[in-house]
UniProtKB/TrEMBL annotation, chain A:
GO terms for biological process: phenylacetate catabolic process. This is Phenylacetate-CoA oxygenase subunit PaaI. Gene3D superfamilies: 1.20.1260.10. SUPFAM superfamilies: Ferritin-like. It comes from Natronococcus pandeyae. InterPro entries: Aromatic_CoA_ox/epox, Ferritin-like, Ferritin-like_SF, PaaA_PaaC, PaaC. NCBIfam families: PA_CoA_Oxy3. One of its GO terms (cellular component) is cytosol.
TrEMBL record, chain B:
Pfam families: FeS_assembly_P. This is Metal-sulfur cluster biosynthetic enzyme. InterPro entries: Fe-S_Maturation_MIP18, FSCA_dom_sf, MIP18-like. Residues 40-110 form the MIP18 family-like domain. It comes from Natronococcus pandeyae.
Length: 288, 139
């Protein structure tokens, strides 16, 4: 079942659905997170941190574009994937769509940490993807992602070191952790099994979730933060047994989103609608 | 001008988003079209004329072009970018397609953006490294 899938025209309905679902999970996470990061532009606590987060936003937009490119091979155009898409069809985790607590720098820092650890594990599980255009993109993205974790951790350590920063981090963790768990939620069970059975990604959501917990829980605890209920069995063993109570009401992946998503969607599609666009390729005609 | 005033010509800094760390090379890269003949050589020549939007270096010497082939009048160019979030992507790819299609004997050009092997500083040609040094980069 892990023969290479090469030509998009040769995919059967099940393969196509699995491929599309995987790509939307990847692209939408990156795109929506970047949309949120840009809100810190010219508002971060220093020029250096402003540039760093803006740069991370640009990286994530670049990665979203790489994944949307692969969806375009399946016959979609950019406007179908972003500006004219039904907001309920977006497959990102709710972690990336939530608005930041106003003026709370601990929020984007913790959020990027929780997300970037998950992304690192997810990219590793795509290195040997049976879909060549996925596997071919992984190295490029990994090389650009390395800094993100470094950036988040260096800030986390500084914030955790002071009373106010520590308190803000704990608040952000209590608020964001349930939403971070939605990173590993299924779009639907069958298509998620197909993604792994077809070799598009070689780890299940549960396996990645477990690995993620075994990374983030000890690290956050080393900063004296209390991690909400996480399925930790004992000191170094983790089981990803997410119960309904641990998750937020909206799961993102299954198309249920928080109200904040509707507002964000309206915002980033505003100019496109305002200008009466029907395609995205050119914002202006070429000069004569 | 005192001697310690920065000279904008030589102290210019490169795009902060581009990663100039050492990387692994690839035996077949950089591709420069050195051994190309006929129409393919003409396409390489045309691509040599295109400069990176931020630095005075040909995109061929920068190592962005991975391959050129011409078959039945259609030129196919494999190309990468230094950075996935490059805001000049459409501008550059349009330029490359137009330059390749404008070569006499070429009727159409197709550009394939490729991301593997990923671009690293090892992909820059010796001439390209000289150009970048002159621009003020230490590589």
């Amino acid at each position: 079942m892990t023969a290479s899938l090469e030509n998009p025209d040769d995919l059967d309905a099940r393969e196509r659905d699995a491929l599309e679902t995987l790509l939307k999970r990847l692209a939408d996470d990156e795109f929506v997170l970047a949309e949120r990061y840009t809100e810190w532009q010219v508002r971060a606590p220093s020029l250096e941190s402003d540039l760093a987060l803006s740069n991370n936003a640009q990286d994530e937009l670049g990665h979203a574009r790489l994944w949307y490119d692969v969806l375009e091979d399946l016959g979609y155009e950019e406007q179908d994937l972003v500006y004219e898409r039904d907001p309920a069809d977006f497959r990102h985790a709710t972690l990336v769509e939530l608005p930041f607590e106003e003026g709370d720098w601990a929020d984007p820092i913790l959020r990027s940490y929780l997300y970037d650890v998950a992304e690192k594990l997810r990219l590793e599980a795509l290195e040997e993807s049976t879909y060549p255009k996925i596997a071919d993109r992984v190295g490029k993205i990994q090389s650009e992602e390395e800094y993100h974790l470094e950036h988040a951790q260096s800030w986390l350590e500084r914030l955790a070191d002071g009373d106010e920063g520590h308190e803000r981090l704990q608040d952000a963790l209590d608020r964001l952790f349930p939403h971070a768990l939605t990173i590993f939620e299924p779009v639907n069970r069958d298509v998620e099994s197909d993604i792994v059975d077809l070799g598009l990604r070689d780890a299940t959501l549960e396996e990645m979730g477990e690995e993620w917990l075994s990374n983030v829980v000890p690290y956050l605890e080393s900063l004296d933060l209390d991690v909400p209920e996480s399925g930790q069995m004992d000191d170094d063993e983790f089981e990803f047994e997410v119960t309904q109570e641990m998750l937020p009401e909206e799961r993102g992946r299954d198309g249920s989103h928080t109200d904040a998503w509707v507002d964000l969607y309206d915002e980033f599609t505003h100019t496109y609608r305002e200008l009466g666009r029907s395609e995205t390729t050119k914002i202006m005609e070429k000069p004569e | 001008m005192s001697s310690n005033t920065p000279d904008p010509e030589t102290d210019a800094t490169p795009c902060a988003y581009t990663d100039y760390r050492e990387g692994e090379g690839d035996d077949d890269l950089p591709a420069t079209g050195e051994d190309a003949t006929g129409l393919e050589a003409d396409v390489w020549d045309a691509l040599y004329e295109i400069e990176d939007p931020e630095m005075p270096i040909s995109i061929v010497d920068l190592g962005l072009i991975y391959g050129v082939s011409v078959e039945d009048g259609v030129a196919t160019v494999d190309m990468t970018l230094t950075y996935s979030g490059c805001p000049a992507r459409d501008m550059l790819t349009d330029q490359v397609e137009e330059a390749a299609a404008a070569v006499e004997g070429v009727e159409d050009a197709e550009l394939r953006l490729v991301w593997s092997p990923e671009w690293t500083i090892e992909m820059v040609t010796e001439r390209g490294k000289d150009d970048l040094r002159e621009f003020g980069l230490s590589i």
